[in-house]
Write a structure and sequence with these properties.
Helix content: 10-25%
CATH superfamily of the largest domain: Jelly Rolls
CATH topology of the largest domain: Jelly Rolls
Number of strands: 10
Radius of gyration: 22 Å
CATH architecture of the largest domain: Sandwich
Structural class: alpha+beta
CATH class of the largest domain: Mainly Beta
Number of domains: 2
Strand content: 25-35%
Number of helices: 4
Order of helices and strands: HEEEEEEEEEEHHH
Length: 212
């Protein structure tokens, strides 16, 4: 009887002391290097309410670019208050014919909420390469599991706007097209691993700014 009681008291005291030593928050200090656990904490004396407020999501992004899309992110470097909380948010603007090409977020899952317009969105499973895609309208929500290839594009005739949230303050981003064609990986290697011919690879490298 004594040992179970002692064990219970030990667990309760351990839990209490762990909670007492836990930080309320860890506001990012972007002047220090980012690591696997996130940014180092700003000294509490230097934390202000502005660290927990972000103003940029009400401003339309500039979609006058190659993909006719703009993503305004409120991640830890620009929204220090989310550091260590496992959350972040962004705004997606898609002009007519705008597209966010196949990409992944290795550090977090994503959920998209359509504010305006029509967006076709989908992801591909890693086990069977099953494609899950849907046309989304105002008020619709779709989730994209962490690390899976996914896409969004404007499938309507007007501007589309969405709010996107992530299960990480720094979810990361790798766009497949840019990873393949916007660097100096030799064309013959790209051709070998993608089964594309030389003319297609050179064209895509030219469009996306790659060399080799």
């Amino acid at each position: 009887m004594f040992l179970p009681l002692l064990f219970t008291i030990f667990l309760l005291s351990s839990s209490s002391s762990a909670h007492a030593s836990a930080l309320d928050f860890c506001v990012a200090d972007p002047s220090l290097p980012d690591g696997p656990a996130g940014y180092s904490c700003k000294k509490p004396a230097k934390v202000t309410v502005d660290d927990f407020v972000y103003h940029g999501l009400g401003i339309p992004g500039n979609t006058s670019n190659l993909i006719k899309a703009a993503v305004t992110v409120a991640f830890a470097p620009t929204f220090p208050g989310v550091n260590g909380l496992g959350i972040s948010i962004a705004r997606l603007d898609l002009a007519v014919d705008g597209v966010v090409p196949l990409h992944t977020h290795p550090g977090g899952s994503e959920i998209l909420y359509v504010l305006e317009g029509t967006i076709c969105a989908g992801f591909i499973s890693s086990s069977a390469n099953t494609v899950y895609f849907k046309t989304l309208y105002k008020g619709d929500v779709m989730v994209f599991p962490q690390g899976l290839l996914h896409f969004q594009f404007n499938s309507g005739k007007t501007l589309a706007v969405a709010i996107v949230s992530f299960s990480s303050p720094t979810p990361g981003l790798q766009i497949t097209d840019f990873a393949l064609f916007a660097n100096n990986l030799p064309s013959e290697i790209v051709e070998k691993v993608t089964f594309l011919d030389d003319a297609q690879v050179k064209k895509l490298k030219g469009v996306l700014g790659g060399t080799g």
